[in-house]
Amino acid sequence: MISAGDFRNGLTVLIEGNIFQILEFQHVKPGKGAAFVRTKMKNIINGGVVEKTFRPTEKFDTAHIDRKDMQYLYSDGELYHFMDVETYDQIALNEDTIGDALKFVKENEMVKVCSHQGNVFSVEPPLNVELEITETEPGVKGDTATGATKPAIVETGASVLVPLFVNQGDRIKIDTRTGDYLSRA
């Protein structure tokens, strides 16, 4: 159990049957009345963000989130298959659970599978990935002065905005959290 007065960023708590991660918190002590804790929390199951206030003495259960490294094997259309590299156990997750987490992840790459009490609720891709560009317009010499970008399709089928000097066949580094181009690999 943890009290609202002990909240920290990144802490996961169980509130009314839902698991929330504390994104921001602020202890407020108004001149008149009792102190309270204002929080911004993300529901880790459905991704919704809510703002709530609590009395500092309110108690909540902490929710332990298991993050396990697993290898993404393949997709057969409706299910995505993952394998634990230590025990060779395999699990299959549907598209609702995955969302767009795998749009920059190739087969046989390592990802983190997040679960609470054995129920998998999300997949976290690596922070940065290197992918090859399969389709983009050729760059024109002299067009790079403005820092302009053009769309490109990478080998996983996702679309990324890249600088004009990047060509088809180049390997690039992508930030999977934002989908932004970082550099050439």
Describe the structure.
This protein has one helix and 16 strands. By secondary structure, it is mostly beta strands. The strands form three sheets. It has a six-stranded antiparallel beta sheet, with no helix packed on it. Strands 9-8-7-10-11 form a five-stranded antiparallel beta sheet. The longest helix has 4 residues, at about 95-100. The mean pLDDT is about 85. Keywords: Cytoplasm, Elongation factor, Protein biosynthesis. One of its GO terms (molecular function) is translation elongation factor activity. This is Elongation factor P. InterPro entries: Elong-fact-P_C, NA-bd_OB-fold, Rib_uL2_dom2, Transl_elong_fac_P/YeiP, Transl_elong_KOW-like, Transl_elong_P/YeiP_cen, Transl_elong_P/YeiP_CS, Transl_elongation_fac_P.
What's a concise summary of this model?
With 185 residues, this protein is an all-beta fold. The chain is 2% helix and 53% strand. The radius of gyration is 21 Å and the shape is flat.
Topology of this structure?
Layout: E1 2-3, E2 12-15, E3 18-28, E4 36-43, E5 49-54, E6 59-62, E7 66-75, E8 79-83, E9 90-94, H1 95-98, E10 110-116, E11 119-124, E12 128-136, E13 149-154, E14 159-163, E15 171-175, E16 180-184
Order of helices and strands: EEEEEEEEEHEEEEEEE
Shape: flat
* Major sheet attributes: 6 strands, antiparallel
Fraction of helical residues = under 10%
Q: What's the gyration radius in Å?
A: 21 Å
Number of helices: 1
Low-pLDDT windows of residues: none
Overall number of strands:
16
Terminus-to-terminus distance: 46 Å
Structural class: mainly beta
Nearest-integer average pLDDT: 87
Strand content: over 45%
If strands are numbered along the chain, what order do they take across the biggest sheet?
1-6-2-3-4-5
Pathway: Protein biosynthesis; polypeptide chain elongation
Pfam families: EFP, EFP_N, Elong-fact-P_C
GO molecular function: translation elongation factor activity
Family: Belongs to the elongation factor P family.
